[in-house]
């Protein structure tokens, strides 16, 4: 029989790893909530047209990376490749633009892109994302970058740097695009990779993002959007820089930074690390002032970003920190077992981690198992202890033993054990 396997590019997060995931997710929610963001949970599956209309039909994601299929009713559905489109749909569909026009939301969860799996690139990956609606103030763009900076500092991530750019707006971008198209048209075919050859006709801004060495050479003197920014885009960008300075966030400006999704205008940014090889962007985002209207809502400026959780995790110290049991119940005989089950319930209700052996093995076997689990204490209870009303609580690290009265109400016994555990 063929061995059952997970889908290529889809990974299990095993119990040894999940505490680190939780640490990151809790740190992110804490930081996001300190800035006034509230959690939103949106579906993983959406109608395909949502992504085609928002991310852009000429993007890699929509052209070739989406997991799209028809449901039994013949509707085309897609596993979300990112979070922004769904959040915007939810913002419009639930009337948040009326009830909470200045919504600031965050989300945590899996995204799906059928890319070629490699280090830092999966087909099911996870994002920690935020979206802020209803203000076009550059202060918000800078605040989000400062917020990410704080999250990374809190997690002890080093060697990561924000890179920012302005992509202009529908007023000033077309004239730049024309200049760029002319420049690209003059490059001989042999000097561009097949992808860029295609892109120069369909989505020329994306050519700027090509990592191919040959293309890099051909683009050495490419015009950047900076000279073509209109006055308000320029003022917006300068204000973002000013606020970053006020926040004390050091950043790099890169006039060639572009994004793989079409909805951005003005601010675009990435947090990059040189520790991740080719997939250096740990977080990325920017402003998308036209998207809410494009998807059927009222004109609403917005800005957001998403962190790639797996990439962030690769920058964290690798520690496994599964929580060992606070107390292990070594139980011998039916009476002791019944007592131990009740006492465990009482201690677990207070938040202590209690373990036991479910196999009715002898004391030696149970002590060995407790040691293997790394239990801090073991409470030994057998018929003798039930008769005498006293049991031994052993501190496994120091070998110290303490007698605990067990012939009281379970609540009192739990109190006594809790005191002895010293927590
Ligand atoms: P994005 O640049 O496509 O933007 O993705 C954001 C981050 O997700 C990337 O910087 C990377 O860390 C991570 N990521 C993307 N694809 C993969 C993959 N295949 N495997 C592992 N990690 C990956 C967005 O998704 C936008 N929705 C961000 C945004 C929110 N813009 C405004 N609001």
**Strand tally:** 16
* Basic shape: elongated
Return the CATH architecture of the largest domain: 2-Layer Sandwich
Which homologous superfamily in CATH is the superfamily of the largest domain?
Bira Bifunctional Protein, Domain 2
The secondary-structure class comes to alpha+beta
Unreliably modeled segments: none
Task: Give me the number of helical elements.
Answer: 16
- Assembly classification: single chain
Ligand kinds: histidyl-adenosine monophosphate
Give the N-terminus to C-terminus distance in angstroms: 51 Å
Report strand %. 15-25%
Largest sheet: 8 strands, mixed
Which CATH C-level class of the largest domain is it? Alpha Beta
Task: Describe what this molecule looks like in 3D.
- The protein folds into two domains: 18-172 and 229-313, BirA Bifunctional Protein, domain 2; 327-418, 3-Layer(aba) Sandwich (Rossmann fold).
- It is 38% helix and 20% strand.
- It is built from 16 helices and 16 strands.
- It has helices at 18-34, 48-55, 60-65, 84-93, 96-99, 138-154, 173-185, 194-202, 213-218, 231-247, 291-294, 309-314, 334-349, 363-373, 383-388, 410-421; strands at 38-39, 45-47, 68-70, 76-79, 104-112, 124-133, 161-166, 252-253, 267-272, 281-287, 302-308, 327-331, 354-356, 377-381, 390-395, 401-405.
- The strands form three sheets. An eight-stranded mixed sheet has the order 1-5-6-11-10-9-7-8.
- Helix 1 (18-34) packs antiparallel against helix 6, helix 6 (138-154) runs parallel beside helix 10 and helix 13 crosses helix 16 (410-421).
- The radius of gyration is 28 Å and the shape is elongated.
- The mean pLDDT is 95.
- Residues 82-84, 113, 115, 120-122, 125, 127, 129, 131, 260-261, 281-286, 304-306, 308, 310-311 line the site of histidyl-adenosine monophosphate.
